[in-house]
Each structure stands twice: as structure tokens, then as C-alpha cells.
Amino acid sequence: MTNANDAAVAVKPDPAGSVPPEQYAPDAIWREAERLLYREARLLDTERLSDWLEQIVDPTVRYMVVSRELRFRKEKRYGQPAEVFMYDDDYDFLKARVEQFHSGMQWRVDPPERYRRLVTNIEVFETGKAGEIAARSNCLAVRTRRAYEIDQFVYCREDVLRRCPFGTLRLVQRRIDFDERSVAGRNLVMIL
How many helices (H) and strands (E) does the chain have? Predict the structure, then answer.
């Protein structure tokens, strides 16, 4: 008896995605990617941002958060791009954000915030490049501060993971499709 994931399943490229997946990854690699994404959520939820940066993120990373303009499909009079970059960071920029968090100078961390990230609908694809896979997941991040400050963010992540020289997977690219056109919460000072 064969598992459905063991067979090469053709998948159409996501029209909005940056990584055109061609087939599902084998189960062992799929589980490894799932474990990495779940571990990442735990590290971020428990404010272990330095560990996240050192253990999950590759030094060549590109971390993007984009929002789309929500207009009628038939609307053609605007020539501007439909996507707006909210973040377009590299490793040094992420490191600066982590250092700012730990500096005590960020007003959002006192009193402390609490985070809960739910990562779901994980799909893992082969990219055709040796040692590299693509993962797509949907996320819900809830941020709570004091009794009355609760923010929820829903988004889709398209990640490229690459096997590092130590044998573990590392995040080399993340493209977050942020569902809101503008941030409904108080701010977006957090790592999605």
C-alpha cells in the first residue's frame, strides 16, 4: 500500500505565489518542514527571538510581507502594482529588529505582550533545486497586551527552506501575503 504523498502529485503554480511548486515533497521531508515551522512558532511565541534568528533563519534570507490592493477584478484604470511591501528585510534588518526588542527601548514589550501563533494547512513541495524545498502555510497570530489590547493577524506564508551544511533546514525566503490592506491592529511590530 502506498501513501498518496509518496507519489509525485502535480500541483499547479499558485498564481499569486513566488515559488512555483511542481510536486509534493516526500513524507519524511514534509514532516521535517512541519516540525521546523512548529518549532519556529514556539520560539517566537516565547520571545526567544535570538534563538529563532540563529537556529531557523539563514544569513541569506529575504523576509517579505506584502499586502494587496483590494479592488474589483474588472477595475482596469489603475496602473499601479496591486502589491505593497510592508516589510522587505534581509538578515541584518531582522537582526536589528531582534536587538531592538532585547534592548529594553521598545515600548511594546513593557508590560510584556503574549503571543500565540497557529500554523496550519502546511503543504511542502520540491523545488527542483538540490537541498531546497518550498512550504506553504496559513497562520493566525494573536497578540495580547493588558486586559483590553488584543490583535489578530491572518496571513499566508510561502517559504523556501534549504538544507544547511549541518544538515538541518533553514529559512532562506519568506513571502507573507498579509490579508489586510491596512493594519487593523495597533501596529505590526512583531515577527510574523
Answer: 3, 7
116-119 contacts, C-beta under 8 A, 24 or more apart: 116/45, 116/141, 116/142, 116/144, 117/41, 117/44, 117/45, 117/141, 117/142, 118/41, 119/37, 119/38, 119/41
Q: What's the topology of domain 23-71+81-178?
A: Nuclear Transport Factor 2; Chain: A, (3.10.450)
Report the predicted TM-score, pTM, of the whole model to 2 decimal places.
0.80
Residue 4's CB is within 10 A of a number of other CB atoms, namely: 8
Residues 121-150 pLDDT 10s: 999 999 999 999 999 999 999 988 877 788
Which of helix, strand or coil describes residue 95? helix
Q: Which residues contact 8 (CB under 8 A, 6 or more apart)?
A: 23, 24
